[in-house]
Amino acid sequence: MRQSTPEEQEWKAQISSKISHEFRTPMSTILSSAELLEIYGDRLDEAKRLEHLKRIQDAVLHMTKILNTIFDSSVEP
Amino acid sequence: MKKILVIEDEPTVRSNLLELLSAEGFETSAAADGLAGLALALSIHPDLILSDVMIPELDGYGVLSAVRQDPKTASTPFIFLTARTDRSDLRQGMNLGADDYLTKPFTRADLMSAIQTRLKKQDAVVERYTAELKQAEQKLDQLAHYDSVTGLPNRLLLRSRLQQRLNQDAGGKQTAGLLYIGLDRFDRIIDSLGSVFGDVLIKFVADRLVKCAGSDVNIVARMEKAEFAVVMIDVETQEQIVQMAESIRQAISHPFHLESKQVFLTASIGMTMDLTGQIDVEELVRDAKTAMDHVRQTGSDQSCFYDDATFRSTADELALEADLRYALERDQLEVHYQPQVDLKTGRILGSEALLRWRHPERGLIPPAEFIPLAEDNGLIVPIGEWVVKTACEQTKRWQQLGQPDLRVAVNLSPRQFNQPDLAEKLTGILEETEFEPDCLELEITEGTLMRNVESASAIIQKLKSAGVQISIDDFGTGYSSLSYLKSFPFDSLKIDRSFIRNLTEDPKTPAITASIIQMAHALQLQVVAEGVESTGELSFLCLHHCDSLQGYLFSRPVIAHEFEKLLVSGKRLDTGMEWSVSKENPYV
């Protein structure tokens, strides 16, 4: 395997930081909505419960879209 | 209920956070960008702030550093929420004083534990602060009540002691006599002896006075450098007081032996008494001192009784009073401005407006001579209104020249303060002059407040709701304890010049002054030092984080035109420290 150049390393670092950031926000929503359902679910009304389920689904769809964008486009520098 | 501010731009993350926090029993507020978040933080003073790092308008670091600059939010726990995981990001936040970092996604348990830890720690800090405040207060009360040279009660304690004695004797008719004793030519004697002997001599005098005063019921207090008071409780006749004065003058006339030297002193004594049963200590002190001054003017080394008729309406005062009635309409009154300087920047942040009377024949008349007259006959009310209006108009003009936040402080006399329609009148003036209410500061002395604490509190509330700032003037000279400070919503405190003057002379004054500053800050008051004249005093004040000062060191009170020159020239006080903010002069 060839050694990557410093430019390539920098680019990889930037990309992974960006991907990490793009994913962490929807993951945050998923985790908190799931926890709200788990812990306070019995106190929430039906509309509110549906809203959290919707948030989880939207966040997953959003992440899927990001993944598609990454793999559909060229990832070479 | 603890209040948490959430600053987060992602709507779902924000909404989930708010839901979670309110489910956990917190009161919540939220903002979607940094500027809105900062504005909220500074206005609602939350107990804790949760902020995303990457937010529009102003990023989380910007919010944090701005929040840390404001004294009211400087120690508010601040937790970053971030989707970034770089170590360097983390360090940047910690260096700015963030308390914790949560990386997204975080669990409810992580969040709650971070919040609880910070709140618990903050409570501990507040508790420690309260304890320190209490200690400082006790220390200050102790230092502030006894004279350090003689161990005698000072002016402050004299009042409470007398009150205590009178209360013990609540059944009988309460009477008291007061002798005000001034040592003649004391300064000159000390000049020739050397100042080290001053304190020793004062101590000897105090010992003789205590011996003369005799019984435990009577109180001896040191009032000024070379002035004492003896209060006699339950006197029945003037004769008793005159006898006391004679025995004091006798006792003092015996030579004092200081090492190999013999020193001869004389005393001028003013006397007064109250048989009405409604004893007002301030009145007793004032009358006896007036009588002593009269003795001094007519040749010293005598004693003399205060007599209303003789002292109140001397011909001279009557003439002055007649002239004063026309002073306003004849344009003889002037407002002078003494700059107040911000100790952090060295720049002028405002002024104290001071009333002066330019009498056509007698020249500039000191305020101490005519303000009491105006206070007695009620002229202070229209004159005071004129001062506020003039100061607001003038300061408004200066604000328009380039310093929109320039402040002005105006003194309120007891009579002005107690006018029933004061707040309405002020509001009228502020509207007429289009002056920002929070740039106007009203200075009220402790004495004014203490006349009637309850009504004073109501008046201050009313003034505060008009939007003006309130400052307590001449702090430390009144008779009050610190506890009342907390019950009034002041914005700032002015340390009396007597403390500043004694910083380098009296060994205990620096400790008292430092305690006053510390205590004022703990109560979130701005501290202004008055009468600062030397760089030594300046460095003491800088060292103890006093907020601002006024005094000859920077500038004496000057006429409006001169003050404007100071503003335009951008004159700064060299505080010997680096200025932390922009050095630009807004007037250029």
Structure description:
With 77 residues, chain A is mostly helical. Chain A has one domain (18-72): Helix Hairpins, CATH 1.10.287. Chain A is built from two helices and no strands. Chain A is elongated and about 55 Å long. Chain A starts with 5 loop residues before the first helix and ends in a 5-residue tail after the last helix. With 588 residues, chain B is an alpha/beta fold. Chain B has three domains: 3-128, 3-Layer(aba) Sandwich (Rossmann fold); 155-309, Reverse transcriptase/Diguanylate cyclase domain (Alpha-Beta Plaits); 384-561, EAL domain (TIM Barrel), CATH 3.20.20.450. Chain B contains 23 helices and 21 strands. In chain B, strands 13-14-16-17-18-19-20-21 form an eight-stranded mixed β-barrel, surrounded by four helices. Chain B has a five-stranded parallel sheet with strand order 2-1-3-4-5, sandwiched between helices. In chain B, strands 7-8-6-11-12 form a five-stranded mixed sheet, sandwiched between helices. In chain B, helix 10 links the parallel strand 11 and strand 12. The longest helix of chain B has 38 residues, at 108-145. Chain B is globular and about 90 Å long. Chain B starts with a strand and ends in a 19-residue tail after the last helix. Residues 578-583 of chain B have low confidence and may be disordered. The A-B interface holds A 17, 20-21, 24-25, 27-33, 35-36, 39-40, 43, 52, 55, 58-59 and B 10, 12-13, 16-17, 19-20, 23, 54, 83-86, 103-108.
